[in-house]
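Why predict the complex rather than its parts? Because the way molecules touch one another can change local conformation, and only a joint prediction can capture that. The input here totals 835 residues.
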Amino acid sequence: MLAGAMRKAEHEMVVCNACRYCEAYCPVFQAMEERVTFASGDLTYLANLCHNCGECLYACQYAPPHEFGIDVPRTLSKVRVESYEASAWPAFAAVAFRRPWAATLLALLVSALVIAPISAPVARAFSGAARTLRVREGDFYSVIPHAAMVTLFGIVGVFVVLALVMGHRRFAATADLEGPRRTGESPRRTGEGLRHGELSSRRQAASDVFTLKHLHATGEDCVDAEETRRPWRRWMHHCTFYGFALCFASTTAAAIYQLLFGWIPPYGYTSIPVVLGALGGLGLLVGPAGLFLVDRGRDPDLTHVSERSLGAPFLSMLFLTSLTGVILLVLREQPYMPALLVIHLAIVLALFITLPYGKFVHGIYRAAALVKFRREEITK
Amino acid sequence: MYDVAVLGGGNAALCAALVAAERGARVIVLERAPRAFRGGNSRHVRNLRCMHTAPTDILTDTYSEDEFMEDLQRVTGGVTNETLARMMIRASADAPRRMRRFGVRFQPSLRGALHLGRTNAFFLGGGKALMNSAYAAAGRLGVRVVYEADVIGLSIRDGRFESATVRMAGGETRIAARAVVLAAGGFESNLEWLGEIWGEAAKNFIIRGTPYNTGTVLRLMLDAGAEPVGDPSQCHAVAIDARAPKFDGGIVTRLDSVPMGIVVNKCGDRFYDEGEDYWPKRYAIWGRLVAQQPDQIAYSIVDAKAVGRFMPSVYPPIVATSIRELASSINVPAGTLAATIERFNAAVRPGTFDHQALDDCHTEGLVPNKTHWAQRFDTPPFHAYPLRPGITFTYLGLKVDERARVVMKGGVAENIFAAGEIMAGNILGRGYVAGVGMTIGTAFGEIAGRESFRG
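Output of the joint prediction:
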């Protein structure tokens, strides 16, 4: 017996499956039509397919105040957040999804307490003896030794990747990602064909993710309110996503410079790491700020408060990471660079720590659901 | 003083309002429903029947004027005004393009995953999405829309409309206009009126659509001397799940299980051939069939073999492991039901079952026989769905001419136009074919919009 949001979602999917007017809007309804009953795995899968575009709420003849009270975007957003909680590893960390601001602030505090003591200025202040140690202009490693930085971020990085992998594994079980469809039909393709289908479904899902296809699947953008379709949500998400990707590429390029070529930072303003980082940083300033404004302007009926509350902390962390990074880049020759560096690194560390326990996971679970959707489509 | 007052707020009303406003008219729309339930029965519809001479982005193949006319002749048994019908059919050819300029969206083909219709163009998201687009366009064109506006009187002098008395915003207001478009639907949600025709049985009817179609405007016009059209005692009724809400249950309350099993009344007796034809061709007769049964209730019964062979329904089946147990859960005499099923099982002839074709599984020697999809009840659990008549619309309406003007006893009214369900009886004297209600509303709404304001 399902309870709470799951139960409501099941009721809504049963009504939707008998109506099907929304089938052309998005994969949620197309996947729904492949099912007759809705177990919690199905509902978790459908919830994570939903991009919260909102069209189906306004199109619904059974939306509140109708007695059926169908609000698919809102109900599925609640189920979605519940699936984030259920997939969290380690399990106690699920509380972060219920108290996202508290979790973020705690992560910031911990990060600051870890970073500050290993930074040269603080060490100097405590030891007194290190007065001769001078911070060289623009040299971050003179503030925090390279080995310390690599060790710290390496450990945290490994943990974050582990937590994300474990989270994905739990999610795959929760959302029944590998499970058969419930129609009882057997896939037509077998053996080589099916393997080919799996590759192809991953490729298609990747394209869906990279283009945000389902935020404009019908050729027009998704709604912020009834009959109000604007491209901003998609574009700002692109800025955020590709900004994040560019920053990641920048860090990777810097690592290659240093480890492969032995080139030690700071790098010039026209070097690959700086150019990628600057572009990515710009994306991470514009994108998160834009998404924040878009979210604030959206009809509150579209999203459950539990999902809405995940947005701002994550967007703030991305924005602050980029903001402090850009300031650091511009002011790296200034005497107060060490303070800026400590602040920036504390924020980056906190962002990393919170990745598996906040809004970030939506990307992984959405992508996983889209792969399943494309797979079902191929084997249909 | 408005140029055009539109009474009603569904597709026909908005088509008229938009066309008139686009030509520069000052238009007021008086919609009886609150905003959340605006749009009359259009908020429950799904598609528009369209003629077309070549495949389009939203329609496959072709659907000629003559084929459309033949379909209409067939379902109405010839009770149609062919001149008006052909006008409507010709207008339907370009209707999607004209609707699109007001922001209406149609369902595109999705890489073959979803099939386009040949005869019907599907609104993206259905009728409520259609109405949202139309109301948004009305806003852009400066149409004044008043919700919860109940028309309680019409001032008509010498066949000319002068004003409407409207209960709105807590008071009574006179709305004067140079012309009026009547697009306020039929009377199917007026239980009292239905009771005058159907007697006590009407109490057990369920209304599939809006509760606001009480026929007030229709009655006012008939009292004012308008010529009626369509059989006043007839309504379109299908068999729907008896557990549906009294009003506004819409599409999801339908039950597609009938051809896959048998249907019995409260006495446990069968009363009609459940397998006469494909369900979409037969569901419209089952409303009347159930209405003729005692207490206007019947039960569709299937066994486990049928599960998954019909569209999932919104209400769960009543499940039992034996016929006797099932009989007691649905309050039907167990002895009679068991005997009915025993006779049915004995009468089933061997055949090759195919629920997607008119197969050769039938019964012999029963009254009535089941002519297709007849299979023995032998696989528990057994499922029952209660059925009641679900009223879609009524046929009584106002007679109109080719300019959508209302025909009064003394001649054609110069500034009174009608569109949509309130005049559908001119074309649809009987029967129904999917999506034609929207074609009537769109075609005559646009004509009324043009004719009511000539600049």
